[in-house]
Amino acid sequence: MTGSLGDREAREMIESMPIGLVALDSTGHVVFSNEAVTEILGWAPDDLIGRHFHATAHPRRPNGTAYPYALCPLAATQEDREPRTLDRETLWRRDGSRVICDVTASALATGGITVTLRDAFARLELARAQDEFVGVVSHELRTPLASLLGALKLTTAEGLAEDQREMLIDLARRNADRLARLVDDILDLEKARSGALALTRTEIAGASLCASAVDAVTGTALAHDVTMEAQADEDLRFWGDRMRLEQVLTNLLDNAVKYSPPGGTVTLRMRKSDAEVTMDVIDEGAGVAQEDLKRVFDRFWQIDSSNQRIRQGSGLGLTISQAIMELHGGSIDGTSEIGKGTCFTVHLPIRATDLSVPVDLRTPEGKVADAPHPLD
Amino acid sequence: MRRILLIDDEPDIRAVARVAIEVVAGWACDEAASGAEGLAAARELKPDAVLIDMMMPGMDGIATAEAFRADADCAAIPLLFLTANGPGGDPNWLVDGVIGKPFDPMTLGNVIAQKLGWAP
Predict the structure, then answer these.
(1) pTM of the full predicted structure?
(2) Quick check: helix, strand or coil at residue A208?
(3) Which of A77, A266, A361, B64 sits in a 20 to 30 Å window from A42, CA-based?
């Protein structure tokens, strides 16, 4: 079937597109403005239409002096019908604050022009965040890699004692493990970010999930002299991605153990309340300050402990866990008291649809999917 | 015998560098996990040179080098930065040289000697 785009569809697309778009008549007055312009300039379409665009959003230069319309490149496009691009142009918002935009102007057949606006700062901010992420990732990857390579090279050094050689081999193995975990975590995070992290939901027995998660951290708990306790209702059953939920609980338990004092106890408690299953991971560690509690979900954020970061983890576990719970329609939050300990609570909603839709057709939103995702 | 003090927050990097300095170069090596710990150790041990990791949480390499230069007892001790990617600019005004990370443990001693003009 071939079809053409109707006026209504075209208008809807333009109104909702993420780039600011205004159409001006031949005198420079606004005849159309979309939603994104409201975001960028603070002018709703109805308020902006009829106003002179330059006089409203472009009346002054960045230094505050008057900017005559006759000297504005938009006026030049109006005049010669040639398209123009202005990078990092200062525009003025409705509230008088300034906003830096990438602006284009092009002529319309009707005699007016269209102007597009993109918030340049938002773009730069995103690029900066990505640069920072690459910087941290490369540091986090290089450090274990340097230890691993250095240790392996030294195993052949002349005069090396046998216990030193064993220490180096053990060090190399630990760093290879750390690298492997980090690579897994980075891939998971990237999948979550790009929307390729899909859930395979099945019916789960709470007690069995509890037991597997506790099993996974038993070794670490023994090494830190921490006692594990698990409490789950016998008949607790719910729907979710078993492997991913186990990953969430393992991440939380692993953290709880590592931040526990020797002789401490970590408790995993799984209960059903009205419309959700809650899973509490409670430790008796040093606790986290209220302002830091939000940051624990940030990528690579780890608690400084007497100026030495506890580095057994990748610093990505909680970020990934948060993403997994969001896919389940749930969340993770925490409460903490300095000197007493921390409790992270996983919230997993129980939905009516869980009882009626076949498992393999389920998507995170609880809708029926057309086909399996190619990356599943 | 030469005595090196190594300041790095990564215990495994310290372990590797220590073996490189003690076994391959044949010098004495002391470790510190932070700038503050390193400065205290240097006052006590009077090392012949200090290797400082640039990227450390809290007091970073530059802050550590500044603290050494401002300390009456330690101002004259030769300092070398260990860095994977410097923060931009030339940090040499503060230290006597820069050693790239990852370093080759088999030649670390030679590189230190060369940067500081020590006789082989």
Answers:
(1) 0.58
(2) helix
(3) A77
Q: How much is the pLDDT for A5?
A: 80
Distance CA A124, CA A316 (A): 24
- Give the best residue of B9, B10, B16 to mutate against chain A (max A CB count within 10 A): B16
pLDDT of residue A262: 92
Same domain membership, residue A239 and residue A220 = yes
Mutate which: B6, B18, B19, vs A, most A CBs within 10 A: B19
User: Does A236 lie in the same domain as A95?
Assistant: no
Give A-chain residues touching B33 at CB under 8 angstroms.
307-308
Number of domains in chain B: 1
Phi and psi angles of residue A143, each rounded to the nearest 5 degrees, phi first = -60, -55
Query: Would you give the DSSP letter of residue A369?
Result: P
Parent domain of B75: 3-116
Looking at CA atoms only, how far is residue A281 from chain B in angstroms? 28
Longest dimension (CA), chain B: 36
Domain range for residue A142? 123-194
* Burial class of residue B53 in the structure, from the number of CB atoms within 10 Å of its CB (0-12 exposed, 13-18 middle, 19+ buried): buried
Q: Judge if A283 and A344 occupy the same domain.
A: yes
Same domain membership, residue A280 and residue A180: no
Q: What is the DSSP string of A221-242?
A: HHHTT-EEEEEE-TT-EEEE-H
